[in-house]
Amino acid sequence: MKPLLDVLLILDALELEKEGSFAAASAKLFKTPSALSYTVHKLENDLNI
Fold this sequence. Notes:
Layout: H1 7-19, H2 22-29, H3 33-47
Helix pairs in contact: 1-2, 1-3, 2-3
């Protein structure tokens, strides 16, 4: 059974909100901005927005 939402996706999105930019958040999360963008896209799909 798949969980409703992946907690790690939510944490990444919260870090993005906190930092205010993809570049700053991705540096803090040790991800590329592209990977963070994919994370946000996946979270949006999971939330149907």
